[in-house]
Write a structure and sequence with these properties.
The chain has one domain: Rossmann fold, CATH 3.40.50. It is an alpha/beta fold. Strand 7, helix 7 and strand 8 form a beta-alpha-beta unit. The chain contains ten helices and twelve strands. The strands form two sheets. It has an eight-stranded mixed β-sheet, with helices on both faces.
C-alpha cells in the first residue's frame, strides 16, 4: 500500500467574481522512501497542493472534493485534534521562507526542542541530543553553538537548514517541501538537495518537492508531476519525462533551461502566460500557448495512460 494516495482532489476559492478552481481533480501516489517532484509555473497549483495536503487552505478557499489517504486514513475526515497529532510528527512541511516556520524571538535549540516535546515524552537530555543530531544531519557546523543562536543571527541558507532540521527531527513519514531552495545560491541549493535525497533513502521518509525549476527534480526525484492551471498534465518517472516528454508544456519547460556550451544564446520562452483561474479557456488550458493545438483541444483532454506514464494531450510528442 502506498504511503500517500491523492484521489481526484479539488480545491476551490470562492470570490466575488466567481469560483476559482485551483486544483482540478488532482491524483497521484507516493511510496515510502521515494521522492515526488511537482513542477510548474507560478499559478499552476503547486503550493495549493501542498497546503491542501496539510489542511492549511484558508477561507475563501476550501478542499471541496476528492480523497487524501495517508497510510489508509482519509485526512479530509480528520479532526483538528488529529491534525495536531499529525503535523510536525508524521507529516512535516518546509516552507519557501524559513521565517514562516521559525519564531524570531526564540533560540534555535528551544524551537526544535519544542517540536520534539509536543509529540513525545522524551527527557530533556534526550531532546537536546535529538536537536543536536538533527542540526548535524542537515550540515550545520558547530550545532551546539547554533542551538543558542536566534534566527536573525543566521544566514538565509542556515535558516533554511534549521527549518529542514525542524521538519525531520521527529522522523516523519512524509515531508512536503514547498520551493525551499528558491532564494538560495546554487551551491547551497545543491548541498540541501543532496542531503534531502540521502535522508529519504536512509530513513524511508517520503518527500514531495515542489519547484518551478524542472532541472531541480532531475537528480532528486523518482517521479514527477507537471502541473498547469490546476491540473496534472503529465506524470511519470523523472528520467523518462526529462528525456522524452509527451506534453508540449513539459517540452517548453525543458527548452527554457540554459544549455552548457551555448553561451550568449537567447533562451526559449513559452509564449503567453498562465491564464487566470477565473477565465480559463475552454478545453485544454494550455491550448492558447501551444503550437500543436487544433479544434480538438477545445475539449478537456482525458488522462491517457501508457507504459506507466500519464499525460493530458490529444497530440502527445514522441
Amino acid at each position: 500500500m502506498a504511503l500517500l494516495e491523492v484521489k481526484q482532489l479539488v480545491t476551490e476559492f470562492h470570490t466575488d467574481d466567481g469560483v476559482a478552481r485551483a486544483l482540478d481533480h488532482v491524483s497521484f501516489s507516493l511510496e515510502r522512501g521515494k521522492v515526488l517532484g511537482i513542477v510548474g509555473e507560478s499559478g499552476s497549483g503547486k503550493s495549493v497542493t501542498a497546503f491542501s495536503l496539510m489542511n492549511l487552505v484558508e477561507k475563501p478557499g476550501r478542499v471541496s472534493g476528492g480523497e487524501i489517504l495517508f497510510k489508509g486514513e482519509d485526512l479530509r475526515l480528520a479532526s483538528a485534534k488529529r491534525w495536531g497529532q499529525l503535523r510536525g510528527d508524521r507529516i512535516a512541511m518546509v516552507f519557501q521562507d524559513p521565517m514562516m516556520s521559525l519564531n524570531p524571538v526564540m533560540r534555535i535549540g528551544a524551537q526544535l526542542a519544542e517540536t520534539v516535546a509536543i509529540h513525545s515524552k522524551a527527557t530533556r537530555a534526550e531532546i537536546e541530543q535529538r536537536v543536536f543530531e538533527a542540526l548535524q544531519r542537515v550540515g550545520i557546523p558547530a550545532p551546539r553553538e547554533r542551538m543558542r543562536a536566534y534566527p536573525h543571527e543566521l544566514s538565509g541558507g542556515m535558516r533554511q537548514r534549521v527549518a529542514i532540521a525542524n521538519a525531520i527531527i521527529n522522523r516523519p513519514d512524509l515531508i512536503i517541501a514547498d520551493e525551499p531552495t528558491t532564494a538560495l545560491d546554487v551551491t547551497i541549493q545543491a548541498q540541501i538537495l543532496y542531503e534531502m535525497k540521502q535522508l529519504a533513502r536512509a530513513s524511508g521518509t517520503a518527500l514531495i518537492w515542489i519547484t518551478h525549476d524542472i532541472s531541480v527534480v532531475k537528480d532528486l526525484a523518482d517521479e514527477v508531476c507537471v502541473m498547469y492551471a490546476g491540473r496534472i498534465i503529465e506524470r511519470g518517472p523523472v528520467a523518462q519525462i526529462i528525456h522524452a516528454p509527451r506534453h508540449p508544456y513539459t517540452r517548453g519547460l525543458l527548452d527554457a533551461l540554459p544549455r552548457a556550451g551555448s553561451p550568449g544564446k537567447r533562451l526559449y520562452a513559452i509564449p503567453g502566460a498562465t491564464p487566470p483561474l477565473l477565465a480559463l479557456p475552454p478545453g485544454c488550458a494550455f491550448a492558447p500557448r501551444c503550437g500543436h493545438a487544433t479544434r480538438a483541444c477545445t475539449a478537456i483532454p482525458p488522462v491517457f495512460e501508457q507504459g506507466g506514464r500519464e499525460h493530458r494531450c490529444f497530440f502527445p510528442l514522441g
